[in-house]
């Protein structure tokens, strides 16, 4: 079953599309990339894998996207809106809360995981640095998540490829930042990892 709702945030209304699992054991909230939407192929695959693993999944559209803008809001605005969505959607869901997203959405999830009370973070195509600018690293955001992290990344991602670390597992797929290949492996990795959080 799927249902959409708007959520008021300090940055305007966000939209959450909730995909319900048959017998939910947890909640996964996923955000989109900077210029994309929640219909990105990797988000669709992760949603299917998560509901099959017993997680309700909320696909979160940031207020700037809901209002029709393509240019992303500043990081602080994204984080503020995200935390308002978490506070609105979390009640009524038992089990662990997992947050995540693709690219920019993964960064938001890492920055806010502790404040949100998340048990883990799922990162799809985490942008380690801008293309060709490895000195402008965003790795500290990933390292500061404070909870177990699964990263699914394209081997040839021009935004960089993070390595494994304490409480961080990295799964590499063929392809680049779009994660358009090997969706069977993406789904398996996400489903198996989520299952470990409810054992």
Q: Can you walk me through this structure?
A:
The structure is a single chain. The chain is an alpha/beta fold. It has a single domain (2-196), classed as Alpha/Beta hydrolase fold, catalytic domain (Rossmann fold, 3-Layer(aba) Sandwich), CATH 3.40.50. Helix content is 32%, strand content 24%. The protein is built from 6 helices and 8 strands. The protein has helices at residues 41-52, 63-66, 75-89, 104-116, 139-143, 183-196, and strands at residues 2-7, 14-19, 26-31, 55-61, 97-102, 120-124, 149-154, 168-173. It has an 8-stranded mixed beta sheet with strand order 1-2-4-3-5-6-7-8, sandwiched between helices. The protein starts with a strand and ends with a helix. The model has no long low-confidence stretch (mean pLDDT 96).
Present the secondary structure layout.
Blueprint: E1 2-7, E2 14-19, E3 26-31, H1 41-52, E4 55-61, H2 63-66, H3 75-89, E5 97-102, H4 104-116, E6 120-124, H5 139-143, E7 149-154, E8 168-173, H6 183-196
Parallel strand pairs: 3-4, 3-5, 5-6, 6-7, 7-8
Antiparallel strand pairs: 1-2, 2-4
Point out poorly predicted stretches: none
Kindly name the structural category. Answer: alpha/beta
Radius of gyration: 15 Å
Secondary structure tally, helices? 6
Q: Roughly what is the average pLDDT, rounded to an integer?
A: 96
Write down the overall geometry: globular
The percent range for helix content is 25-40%
Order of helices and strands: EEEHEHHEHEHEEH
Strand content: 15-25%
Q: What is the multimeric organization of the chains shown? A: single chain
Going by CATH, the architecture would be 3-Layer(aba) Sandwich
């Amino acid at each position: 079953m799927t249902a959409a709702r708007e959520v008021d945030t300090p940055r305007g209304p966000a939209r959450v599309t909730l995909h319900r699992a048959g017998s939910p054991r947890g909640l996964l909230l996923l955000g989109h990339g900077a210029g994309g939407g929640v219909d990105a192929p990797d988000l669709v695959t992760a949603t299917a894998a998560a509901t099959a693993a017993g997680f309700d999944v909320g696909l979160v559209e940031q207020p700037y996207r809901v209002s029709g803008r393509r240019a992303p809001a500043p990081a602080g605005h994204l984080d503020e809106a995200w935390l308002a969505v978490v506070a609105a959607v979390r009640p009524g869901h038992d089990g662990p809360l997992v947050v995540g997203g693709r690219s920019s959405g993964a960064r938001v999830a890492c920055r806010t995981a502790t404040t949100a009370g998340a048990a883990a973070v799922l990162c799809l195509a985490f942008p380690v640095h801008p293309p060709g600018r490895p000195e402008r690293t965003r790795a500290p955001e990933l390292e500061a998540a404070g909870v177990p992290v699964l990263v699914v990344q394209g081997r040839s991602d021009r935004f960089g490829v993070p390595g494994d670390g304490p409480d961080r597992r990295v799964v590499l797929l063929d392809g680049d930042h779009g994660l358009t290949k090997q969706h069977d492996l993406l789904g398996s990795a996400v489903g198996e990892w989520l299952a470990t959080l409810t054992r």
